[in-house]
Amino acid sequence: MLERVVQASQARLDTSGLRWPRPATTVWALPVAVYYFVRHSQDGALERGVAVLLAVGALALVRRHPGRALLVLLALLPFQVVILSYLLKLGVPEAVIRPLGSWRDLIILGLALAAYRDFVNAGRRLDTLDKLALGYIVLVTAYLLMPDVFVRGATDTFLGAPKDWETRLLAYRIDIGFVLLFLAARHATALEHVRDRAMRVVIVTGAVVAAVAIYEFSFSSSWNTFAIQTLQVPLYSFRVLHTVPADWGDIRHYVFIGGSKVVRPGTTFFDPLHAAFYLLAPLACGVELITRNKARWALLTTSLIAVALLMTNVRSAVIGAVVIVAVAVRQRSGRTSANRVRVATLLALGMLLLVPVAASSGFSSRSSQATDTSDDSTSAHLAGFWNGVHALGDDPLGRGLGTQPGVGDRFRVQTKVTSEDAYLQVGNELGIPTMIVFIILIGVLLRSLRRAADIAWDVPLASAARTAAWGLVVGGLFLHVWLYYGASFTMWGLAGMALRAAESRQLEPTPAPYRIDVPRPTAVAVDDLVRRTSRPLRPFAPPG
Hints:
It is a single chain. The protein has 544 residues and is mostly helical. The protein has 24 helices and 4 strands. The protein has helices spanning 2-14, 23-40, 45-64, 66-76, 80-89, 94-100, 103-122, 128-145, 147-150, 165-187, 195-218, 220-230, 233-239, 272-278, 280-292, 297-312, 315-328, 337-361, 377-394, 407-410, 422-455, 460-475, 485-507, 523-533; strands spanning 253-257, 260-264, 365-366, 375-376. A two-stranded antiparallel ribbon has the order 1-2. Strand 3 (365-366) and strand 4 (375-376) form a beta hairpin. The model is unreliable at 11-27 and 357-375 (pLDDT under 50).
């Protein structure tokens, strides 16, 4: 009887007209809808509509496969300029290439959606680190939506916050992208299965970038020809990024050492600063595997990365590399003494090789273009630092999104401040309160990574993320490391997965102590045992 009622109700639902149209009807209606949209759309509306559809599809795909999406992000970060430049050469319109530059933001947003779903389903609660990260994102969002509320108005000597929406949005994406990726990597459950593969992807990708750097250093003319004629990087910068190249015929960077002009390889980033700081995370992962004797192939890749890092001649990144190796050779569970001694020996040899180069350059000669002049780099760093301090005193609430280096240079923002310090830069752009929140976030992150390395001592990624974080945090004292998306996204993504590994280890059930359960005998069994073993009493007979 119950089955008949169910079948009758289903039949009524099928004939009630509440169903979606049949697939055939939808397929026939789709060309009509597309024709109507194209016929009545304004200029550029078709491109925007296609971009929106592709973005929605990408978000759905990333949310469905977050692990693979993260691997793709880590593998393609260093090759964004190479891929987009070549697509422009193949004839892809600029209106299509420009939105493609947001591919990494779509992946991060999709990972964040997957992490939010897993966070809600698990019934977890926010801890101090999560609250600091979300607080930082909220403050930056307020500067995006209400710039005039925080930044002082325009005067005769100050133009106020940048009003262009594109400028502020690009700066916003750069400022919060790595923090959002950190939260996604920490709370997305599916990323636990790709933890080891992510570490290998970072090392292999870093080795490829290092190999290109060594090739550029050794055969700079061939690399310059390839970048200009085959990839057409200057044309991409001019037509897509709207930046005028310093030299249309030479994309190389130079440094003067001992009176000689030496190439500073920018590898696939076409920027030696960006390339050097990106290589710190692969170096940390490779050194960690060497100290644990986990993979022999890591010795070759790590050596390539170290050599390429020295060739970039970025002293702040070299200091960060020394910090990474110094932290990695410390005694910790999982690291053998023999391998730690080998890494320490390699560090000593690298320092010996670095001393003549530093002495010949006087720690002061650096030039970013192919000129015959040399700038006093140390004086420039000090001047930039004090310039940032004075700007922070004049504008304690910052100058607004887009006044940071990079974005400010690209859009020619006149109120841009270059403080030569990653933490002063946050204050100059977003104010002292945001700078304090960001510094506290960095400190709590380092403490959490240390605790994660102790808990998940057998997980190489936990210790590698800690050493990479220390290297970039120290490098941030001298340059704006968090503005380099390759370095910041890689390090903060690894840090999120490292904390996730430690939290999963804490949630594992504790095994119960081993014991043998012996069944207790019943009353019937006891009576039977007594009856079988007892003997009748014999009368006592005296001897004799």
